[in-house]
Every structure is written in C-alpha cells, then in structure tokens.
Design a protein that fits this description.
Pfam families: Abhydrolase_11. The protein contains five helices and eight strands; from the N terminus they run E-E-E-H-E-H-E-H-E-E-H-E-H. It has 220 residues and is an alpha/beta fold. It starts with a strand and ends with a helix.
C-alpha cells in the first residue's frame, strides 16, 4: 500500500507491506545514504516480515544530513503511531547504513522526550560505525544512550564497521544487544561465492527470529 507521509511542507514516499492477519507490531525501515526505499535488501526484508505476520513500513528520505534524516524518521514514527488503519502496540525502527544511524538518533531523542513504550527496539543493518579507514572517530554516541533492545547485522569484512570496534561499543551499551556477523560480507552485504538472495535469506531470518524473541519477551 503506497502512502505519502507529511513531513514539514512536503511528503515522504512510503510503502506498507501488510500481513494477511492483523499485526500488533510493526517495523519502520529506511535506506542508506544512496538509494531509496526500493533498495533490494529493504524490499526483500519487508516482504519476508509481512509474510511472517509483521507489518512493515518502508520510506524514502533523500539527503545526506543526519539531522534531516532523523527528523524525517521521527515524522514517520509519529504518523504510524497516530494511524487509524494500523493500530499497533509497538514498532521497531530499522535502517540500513546511514538509515540505522538516523533510527538510533530518533530512539535516543524520543526516549528523552516521552516514556511511552511505542518504540520496542532498533535493528541496524550495516551500521556505519566509522568512515572507511577512519577508525579513530566512532559514531557511537546515540548507541550508548539507548535502552531498548538492539540488533546489529553486519558483514565481518565491512569497511565501515570493524568487527572488534563494534564489539567494543556493544560491550559498553546498556541496552540488551545482539550482533549477527555475516561472514566475509562487505558494507553492501556482498559475499564472494554467495548470491544476494542467499545472503538476504540469512539476514531476514535473523531479523525475524530476533523480533519474535523480543515480542515474546514483551508478552511474558
């Protein structure tokens, strides 16, 4: 279902992937610095989640300014929270690369503003912890302030997220967290000798099983 989400004086293009049965939880998903919501990994994950009963809303927000991207993500969260069509108990924010930075930033800001439990967790696909070859400047400030569960799915050969550095940041985080390493994958999740579909199957299954664990924990 295609929708346009109001953002300031313009609109963000977005698409709902709707499960057959009514969903109580949803995932909001956005892309990295390049591309848009039709980036193949996002399309694949949205379809997978919807087919497993989780509503997925993916949106496009162009622009390389992280503050701007964060504001856009926040507008999408508000939109879904107030939606009459999909009354959700909670959402998980997810993004690829820069989109995951924006998601982390939104969660940090919203947790300081209101303490309702609408946001249940954060999913970071290829979190860009540092610029290539610039390991001294880590983009970890938002991660250290987040309290909700966090899932990282990163390639072990990601040139923007050195394995030991992410593990170091994770050890300092107060949030419950899990890292799933895609063996030999780069920042774009490409692995020599494996098809994109094969890699995406692994990623999608990981994301879904983590979601299920966290939604079940909620109900206990």
């Amino acid at each position: 279902v295609k929708v346009k989400i109001p953002f300031g004086n313009k609109y963000l293009d977005a698409i709902f992937s709707v499960p057959e049965k009514k969903s109580t939880y949803g995932v909001i998903l956005t892309h990295g610095a390049g591309g848009d919501m039709n980036f193949p990994h996002l399309v694949s994950l949205s379809a997978y989640l919807a087919s497993h009963g989780v509503l997925c809303l993916r949106f496009t927000c162009k622009g390389l300014n992280i503050v701007y991207r964060t504001k856009a993500f926040k507008a999408v969260v508000e939109y879904l929270k107030l939606s009459d069509d999909y009354k959700l108990s909670g959402v998980f924010l997810a993004g690829r690369s820069m989109g995951s930075r924006a998601a982390a930033s939104v969660i940090r800001h919203l947790s300081q503003e209101d303490d309702d439990d609408f946001i249940q967790g954060l999913i970071c696909l290829s979190y860009p912890l540092h610029r290539p070859k610039l390991q001294s400047k880590l983009r970890d400030e938002d991660l250290l302030f987040i309290g909700c569960p966090v899932l990282f799915v990163s390639g072990s050969a990601d040139e923007m997220c050195e394995k030991q550095l992410l593990e170091g940041v994770a050890s300092k985080m107060k949030a419950p967290k899990k890292i799933h390493w895609i063996d030999k994958a780069n920042h774009g999740m490409a692995v020599k000798g494996r098809t994109t579909d094969d890699v995406m199957e692994e990623i999608n299954a990981q994301v879904f099983s983590w979601l299920r664990e966290n939604i079940e924990l909620e109900h206990k």
